């Protein structure tokens, strides 16, 4: 599935790509993310994470013991979307099925954002809604999102520090509407490696270009920075935190007695 430019560039440089694909395969096995006959819509934003996810799933499908179908789905937020043009050129070149859905998310956010609330959380709710309705109406039973290990770890710490709860994301989650299942196969993949994979494969990564970028959640940025500092002293800290999410000792947590 590599394009010719990427092949020429590659040589032996594809070690990170192989590593990412292996970790995606491991996550699929560990969390039973894919079943025979699945139709998976991969949310493709044009960033490094979603490109890496898409190409990992396509590569794994060649050797998978089950059959599954994949399409890339992109939400376009303006009708002169140059990012979309570059993305579709690559998808066409590699023969990958895709759909593009228009939704003027910036206007919706501008009209509904209340003081102090984060545009990104509203944005992700809107995007999720658009993807859910597309998947339901077009017969895709799973939606694959490009959240990686760093997202999982940061979300856990954000909830721990600011919400007083132990909660992160799930690699596999049935949506409240009962119709959609969200999967996050990059759970074991570090963010830096999606960037390397995208580079190795010559994927046309486009900057987000969102008008709300300067307002991106300052708490998340702070947690990211904190993790960077912690990694200087504890190099394996992100793996350790991620692994802690799967080793919860219920008996050693605060469990209040239900009042009759
Ligand atoms: S930066 Fe913009 S596009 Fe990205 S999540 Fe936030 S609001 Fe949405």
What labels would you give this structure?
260 residues, alpha/beta, Rossmann fold, six-stranded mixed sheet, globular, disordered N terminus, binds iron/sulfur cluster
Can you offer a commentary on this structure?
The chain is of the alpha/beta class and 260 residues long. It has a single domain (4-252), classed as Rossmann fold. It has helices at residues 4-10, 15-30, 48-63, 82-93, 105-112, 119-138, 149-163, 191-200, 218-233, 237-244, and strands spanning 38-43, 68-76, 98-102, 142-144, 172-174, 181-183. The protein has a six-stranded mixed β-sheet, sandwiched between helices. Residues 119-120, 123-124, 208, 210, 212-213, 216 line the site of iron/sulfur cluster (SF4).
Separation, N- and C-terminal Cα atoms: 61 Å
| Strand composition percent | 5-15%
What is the CATH first-level class name?
Answer: Alpha Beta
Strand order, sheet with most strands: 3-2-1-4-6-5
- Fraction of helical residues: 40-55%
Q: Which regions contain 5 or more consecutive residues with pLDDT less than 50?
A: 1-12
Find the CATH superfamily: HUPs
Question: What is the helix tally?
Answer: 10
Please summarize the sheet with the most strands.
Answer: 6 strands, mixed
- How many distinct domains? 1
The distinct bound ligands, ions and cofactors come out as:
iron/sulfur cluster
Summing up helix and strand content along with how strands pair, one would put the structural category as alpha/beta
Q: Could you tell me the mean pLDDT?
A: 90
The coarse overall form would be globular
Beta-strand segment tally: 6
Order of helices and strands: HHEHEHEHHEHEEHHH
CATH topology: Rossmann fold
Oligomer: single chain
């Amino acid at each position: 599935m590599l394009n010719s430019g990427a092949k020429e560039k590659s040589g032996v440089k594809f070690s990170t790509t192989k590593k990412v694909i292996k970790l995606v395969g491991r996550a699929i096995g560990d969390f039973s993310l894919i079943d025979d006959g699945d139709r998976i819509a991969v949310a493709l934003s044009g960033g490094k994470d979603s490109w890496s996810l898409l190409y990992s799933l396509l590569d794994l499908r060649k050797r998978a013991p089950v059959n599954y179908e994949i399409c890339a789905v992109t939400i376009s937020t303006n009708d002169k979307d140059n990012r979309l043009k570059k993305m579709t050129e690559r998808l066409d070149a590699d023969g990958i099925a895709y759909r593009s859905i228009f939704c003027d998310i910036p206007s919706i956010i501008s009209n509904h954002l209340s003081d102090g609330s984060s545009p990104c959380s509203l944005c992700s709710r809107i995007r999720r809604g658009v993807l859910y309705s597309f998947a339901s109406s077009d017969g895709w039973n799973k939606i694959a999102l490009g959240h990686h290990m760093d997202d999982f770890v940061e979300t856990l710490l954000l909830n721990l520090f600011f919400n007083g709860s132990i909660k992160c994301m799930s690699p596999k989650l049935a949506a409240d509407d009962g119709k959609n299942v969200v999967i996050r196969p990059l759970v074991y993949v570090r963010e830096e490696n999606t960037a390397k994979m995208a580079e190795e494969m010559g994927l046309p990564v486009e900057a987000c270009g969102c008008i709300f970028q300067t307002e991106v959640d300052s708490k998340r940025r702070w947690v990211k920075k904190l993790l960077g500092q912690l990694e200087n002293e504890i190099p394996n800290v992100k793996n350790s935190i991620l692994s802690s999410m799967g080793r919860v000792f219920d008996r050693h947590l605060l469990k209040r007695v239900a009042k009759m």
